[in-house]
């Protein structure tokens, strides 16, 4: 088993679909859709298999692949023969730990469901599925990459693919939405790249004298090396000044904060939620936003525990602002997609709160919230896609009473709503509960203010969901049909996952057993 | 040491060393005569093929010379640079790398012109084909010169032929206007360079770069102010030649007015040649200056290079936001790229030449590729507005995909040469601790995302009424794909080029001119 490059297989398997699609005639749309959906099952099955094979009790990473990729020599003349080699090194380094595993699983699930939801796409199926699968490659790569260069590469793949997916297949305002997406996220990537460059040039520096008489100097993008040099610097490693550490940390915070999104960097994601095709929003809201939180954990928290500690209060306040701001604005929206967009802001605020607790419960809560919100918002937008097909609007004032003509979808919508407002027994509850519990032991006032968001959450979710399903129905909706089988399957599957996480949360908690140990130890030592 | 004693005539043996240059001289003379005597009805593309062959022969000579001169790290081999004519002309790996870039760029430009230049773009194709040869010869002389006079001869050879090339559309008023602007402004910039050089000669009494460096460092105290004056005069002139802001105003007009292949020549070869002399003079004459007392001087000079770099990136990228014409847009993106290329020159680290060389090569492919696509598009639409790219994906899907690769490379998205080059430059600047310039570099490339993706938006998201396929001449299509594949290759396997440069190039022998060696 150890010989199978399973991580590479998961990451690159969508490329197989792309390759087949390239040679498929563009007019055979049934075939193209079948290939597209079928391809997403390959990584899905592999991830499930890995999820089952994963031994949670073991520390460290269970799966790892590390290949030398880019090895750029630098000039050694100034060292006059004392240095055997001097180079910049970037590796193709993938690894899997608990955190990655959960997010990869989320990606695989949402990927399959979004592929089903793509049946509503009206034009240019071939290009659509090629970009869609490319986006999936990028997402898998982001969550597994353990080299700064490789991480950035996959991050940009998702950026470019999403830009085209929004810009070509979105609603009327698609081009503006795509541009806004591009500029905001481009800025985020740029700040991240600055931070990475600084990290590689300082903490990535390595002196290797393991072979007698030979000195190898290198700049490496390898995360393990950088972590080692930052946490336990050896004599030869470059020591980062406090100012430098702070600069890099803030750069990373803003970079991933744009993606997360943290207020006031959220305006782009409203446009995307509103204008992108629902299948893409499922991925966007379900997975892409989590890349921000993941990046913050992997690079912000883990690399700079001391900095994180001194910024914890700020993070918590930002989280509360997100929760309240999102909830209040979700209350007054007339467009259901925007209600969901603001609710995403609110829920991602909970993730920030959980992270800022800096204790095990809070961190696990944040992770749980990420997975749970990914599934719930994917389900919501799956419903939105099917709804729009039938009604051609998702404005709350034009909808109502749909429970009569489509009871099944209304029922699923209600479940999604209840999960979103945090009803015990469904997944939303566990994430919020753990996050607030974690924070409550550290910062009581902020946690209490944050819980206000939960009350508001119940109001805006019920207002939106009930507004669609109950009340008087307009005549023009009388003839509409309930979900077709191909729509119903992903709805039921996502609902099943949401219920499963709600009643059996250890599925998510178990893989995280050892994920935060090193980080929490460092915090304890530092504090 | 008196400079007079250095004068030595050309030896027969030197001719072998000069084979690449001589090939071009002979070819240019023969081809111009051929153009004169060939009957009118014969298609002048024959001349294009012949000049392409001569450029390739010259390229082969350069590479074989480079290989025969041996690796930089080879201890047994000390003759790293061959000096001719009393150190005024030198063949070293600095020059060789540049020559390879000039010649491959010119070869691609010649190849893509074959059969795809329309009558209304260039009437006298024969002239166009054989004038490119002296132009690239001028560039090669610039890269190889170790003396101010030689250098100026090369510069003027390149400039004057470029003036003619820009004005090739004889019946087009816009083209005439741009050629006229180019002559006037180009001559002024040459005057600036010459004036700066005259200070150097006045201070040192020699035109030899190594001699100047030696004299200046001995008499630094006396000439402090004059050194600054001559540096800034020359820098202004060079900045004009490489189109770095704030000396870039000519570029959009000239690029737009010139025939597209000539635009590619200006954007790649001419710009690279400007960098060659800028690099050589700054590192040989100005940057070594400063004993312990005057180290601030080097700091001032390198800082001013970085400031111009930052200005070029900021001004180039923001001005490009408003452009609706692709060639003007690429001109301004060229301004920004000149800024990126100035960074390794201004932030001193040991590997700056490989960083610079790598990005220049990446820039060569993406720029020529993009301009080849512009040629394809404007052949069918009759103009080169950004809107003429509308629906390109439907009309020529493969060309659209290739253009996307160039756009991604320009915008600095991974897996392309443009990204690797920028990252490599940024890491170099980080080694030199010039952190602010990294921030400027990366943030301005976010601005550039907007206008580069504007082209992608036209290609994929807009459409024109009827989607009739575009006819693409074979050489043009092949050029586009050579460039696209090279761009991807540089992004995935950057070490091949860097290894190559690092293997042959040595700072102490190839960049710096040693006295009397």
TrEMBL record, chain A:
Entry's Gene Ontology cellular component terms: plasma membrane
Membrane topology of this protein: Multi-pass membrane protein
Positions of the NADH:quinone oxidoreductase/Mrp antiporter transmembrane domain: 145-451
Example GO BP: electron transport coupled proton transport
Pfam family, one: Proton_antipo_M
Transmembrane intervals: 6-23, 35-54, 99-121, 128-145, 151-172, 184-205, 248-268, 280-304, 310-332, 339-358, 370-388, 408-426, 446-468, 489-509
Principal location class: membrane
Keywords of this entry: Membrane, Transmembrane, Transmembrane helix
Subcellular location: Cell membrane; Membrane
Any one Gene Ontology molecular-function term assigned to this protein's record: NADH dehydrogenase activity
Similarity field: Belongs to the complex I subunit 4 family.
Protein's recorded name: NADH-quinone oxidoreductase subunit M
Provenance organism: Paenibacillus selenitireducens
TrEMBL record, chain B:
GO molecular function term, any single one: quinone binding
EC number: 7.1.1.-
Similarity comment: family membership: Belongs to the complex I subunit 2 family.
Entry's Gene Ontology cellular component terms: plasma membrane
InterPro entries, per the entry: NADH-Q_OxRdtase_suN/2, ND/Mrp_TM
Quaternary assembly: NDH-1 is composed of 14 different subunits. Subunits NuoA, H, J, K, L, M, N constitute the membrane sector of the complex.
Chemical reaction(s) catalysed: a quinone + NADH + 5 H(+)(in) = a quinol + NAD(+) + 4 H(+)(out)
TM spans (from-to): 12-34, 46-67, 94-115, 127-143, 149-168, 180-201, 225-250, 262-283, 303-322, 329-350, 356-377, 398-415, 435-453, 474-497
Subcellular localization(s) per the UniProt record: Cell membrane; Membrane
Membrane topology (UniProt): Multi-pass membrane protein
Keyword line: Cell membrane, Membrane, NAD, Quinone, Translocase, Transmembrane, Transmembrane helix, Transport
HAMAP family to which the protein is assigned, alphabetical: NDH1_NuoN_1 (MF_00445)
Protein name in the entry: NADH-quinone oxidoreductase subunit N
GO BP terms, alphabetized: ATP synthesis coupled electron transport
Domain of life where this protein originates: Bacteria
Physiological role: NDH-1 shuttles electrons from NADH, via FMN and iron-sulfur (Fe-S) centers, to quinones in the respiratory chain. The immediate electron acceptor for the enzyme in this species is believed to be a menaquinone. Couples the redox reaction to proton translocation (for every two electrons transferred, four hydrogen ions are translocated across the cytoplasmic membrane), and thus conserves the redox energy in a proton gradient.
Residue stretches making up the NADH:quinone oxidoreductase/Mrp antiporter transmembrane domain: 145-448
Main enzyme class: translocase
């Amino acid at each position: 088993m150890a010989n199978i490059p399973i991580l590479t297989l998961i990451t690159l398997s969508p490329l197989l679909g792309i390759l087949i699609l390239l040679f498929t005639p563009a007019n055979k749309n049934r075939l193209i859709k079948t290939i597209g959906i079928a391809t997403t099952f390959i990584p899905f099955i592999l991830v499930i298999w890995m999820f089952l094979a994963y031994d949670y009790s073991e520390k460290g990473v269970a799966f790892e692949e590390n290949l030398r990729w880019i090895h750029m020599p630098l000039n050694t003349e100034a060292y006059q023969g004392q240095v055997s080699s001097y180079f910049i090194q970037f590796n193709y380094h993938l690894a899997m730990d608990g955190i990655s595993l959960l997010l990869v699983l989320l990606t695989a699930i949402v990927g399959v469901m979004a592929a089903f939801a793509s049946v509503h796409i009206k034009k240019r199926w071939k290009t659509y599925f090629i970009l869609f699968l490319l986006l999936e490659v990028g997402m898998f790569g982001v969550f597994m990459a353990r080299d700064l260069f490789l991480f950035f590469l996959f991050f940009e793949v998702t950026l470019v693919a999403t830009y085209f997916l929004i810009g070509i297949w979105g609603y009327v305002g698609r081009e503006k939405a795509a541009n806004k997406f591009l500029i905001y996220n481009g800025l985020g990537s740029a700040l991240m790249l600055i931070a990475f460059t600084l990290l590689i040039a300082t903490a990535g520096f390595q002196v290797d004298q393991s072979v007698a008489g030979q000195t190898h100097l290198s700049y490496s993008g390898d995360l393990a090396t950088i972590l080692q040099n930052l946490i336990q610097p050896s004599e030869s490693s470059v020591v980062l000044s406090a100012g430098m550490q702070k600069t890099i940390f803030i750069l990373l915070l803003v970079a991933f904060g744009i993606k997360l999104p943290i207020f006031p960097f959220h305006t782009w994601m409203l446009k995307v939620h509103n204008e992108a095709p629902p299948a893409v929003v499922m991925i966007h809201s379900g997975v892409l936003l989590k890349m921000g939180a993941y990046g913050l954990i992997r690079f912000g928290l883990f690399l700079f525990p001391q900095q994180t500690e001194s910024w914890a209060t700020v993070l918590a306040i930002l989280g509360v602002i997100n929760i309240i701001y999102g909830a209040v604005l979700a209350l007054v929206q007339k467009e259901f997609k925007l209600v969901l967009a603001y609710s995403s802001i609110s829920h991602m605020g909970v993730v920030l709160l959980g992270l800022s607790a800096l204790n095990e419960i809070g961190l696990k809560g944040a992770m749980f919230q990420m997975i749970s919100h990914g599934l719930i918002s994917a389900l919501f937008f799956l419903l939105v896609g099917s709804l729009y097909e039938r009604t051609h609007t998702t404005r709350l004032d034009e909808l109502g009473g749909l429970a009569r003509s489509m009871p099944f979808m209304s029922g699923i919508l209600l479940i999604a709503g209840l999960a979103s407002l945090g009803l015990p027994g469904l997944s939303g509850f566990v994430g919020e509960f753990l996050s607030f519990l974690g924070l409550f032991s550290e910062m009581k006032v902020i946690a209490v203010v944050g819980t206000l968001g939960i009350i508001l959450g119940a109001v805006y979710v019920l207002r939106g969901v009930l507004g669609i399903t109950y009340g008087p129905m307009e005549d023009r909706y009388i003839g509409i049909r309930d979900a077709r089988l191909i729509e119903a399957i992903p709805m039921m599957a996502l609902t099943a996952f949401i219920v499963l996480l709600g009643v059996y949360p250890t599925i998510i908690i178990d893989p995280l057993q050892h994920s935060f140990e090193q980080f929490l130890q460092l915090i304890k030592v530092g504090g | 040491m008196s400079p007079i004693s250095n004068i030595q005539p050309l030896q027969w043996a030197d001719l072998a060393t000069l084979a690449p240059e001589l090939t071009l001289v002979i070819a240019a003379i023969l081809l111009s005569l051929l153009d004169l005597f060939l009957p009118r009805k014969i298609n002048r593309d024959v001349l294009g093929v012949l000049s392409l062959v001569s450029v390739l022969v010259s390229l082969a000579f350069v590479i074989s010379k480079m290989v025969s001169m041996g690796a930089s790290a080879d201890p047994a081999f000390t003759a790293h640079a061959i000096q001719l004519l009393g150190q005024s002309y030198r063949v070293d790996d600095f020059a060789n790398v540049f020559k390879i870039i000039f010649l491959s760029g010119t070869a691609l430009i010649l190849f893509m012109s074959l059969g795809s230049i329309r009558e209304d773009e260039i009437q006298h194709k024969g002239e166009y084909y054989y004038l490119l040869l002296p132009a690239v010869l001028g560039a090669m002389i610039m890269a190889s010169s170790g003396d101010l006079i030689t250098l100026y001869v090369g510069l003027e050879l390149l400039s004057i032929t470029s003036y003619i090339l820009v004005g090739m559309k004889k019946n087009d008023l816009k083209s005439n206007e741009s050629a006229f602007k180019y002559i006037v402004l180009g001559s002024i910039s040459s005057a600036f360079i010459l004036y700066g050089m005259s200070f150097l000669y006045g201070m040192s009494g020699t035109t030899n770069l190594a001699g100047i460096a030696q004299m200046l460092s001995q008499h630094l105290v006396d000439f402090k102010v004059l050194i600054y004056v001559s540096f800034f005069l020359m820098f202004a002139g060079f900045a004009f030649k490489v189109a770095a802001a704030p000396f870039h105003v000519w570029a959009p007009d000239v690029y737009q007015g010139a025939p597209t292949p000539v635009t590619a020549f200006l954007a790649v070869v001419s710009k690279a040649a400007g960098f060659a002399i800028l690099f050589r003079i700054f590192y040989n004459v100005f940057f070594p200056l400063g004993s312990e007392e005057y180290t601030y001087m080097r700091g001032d000079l390198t800082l001013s290079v970085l400031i111009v770099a930052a200005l070029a990136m900021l001004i180039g990228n923001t001005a490009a936001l408003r452009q609706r014409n692709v060639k003007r847009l690429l001109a301004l993106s060229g301004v920004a790229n000149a800024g990126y290329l100035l960074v390794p020159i201004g932030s001193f680290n040991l590997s700056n030449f490989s960083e610079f060389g790598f990005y220049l090569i990446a820039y060569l492919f993406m720029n020529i590729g993009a301009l080849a696509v512009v040629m394809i598009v404007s052949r069918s639409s009759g103009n080169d507005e950004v809107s003429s790219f509308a629906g390109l994906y439907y009309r020529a899907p493969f060309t659209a995909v290739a253009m996307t690769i160039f756009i991604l490379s320009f915008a600095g998205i991974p897996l392309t040469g443009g990204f690797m080059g920028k990252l490599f430059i940024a890491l170099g600047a980080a080694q030199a601790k010039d952190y602010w310039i990294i921030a400027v570099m990366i943030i301005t490339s976010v601005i550039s995302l907007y206008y580069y993706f504007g082209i992608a938006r036209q290609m994929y998201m807009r459409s024109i009424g009827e989607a009739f396929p575009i006819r693409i001449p074979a050489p043009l299509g092949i050029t586009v794909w050579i460039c696209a594949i090279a761009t991807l290759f540089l992004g995935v396997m950057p070490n091949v080029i860097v290894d190559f440069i690092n293997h042959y190039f040595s700072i102490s022998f190839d960049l710096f001119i040693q006295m009397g060696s």
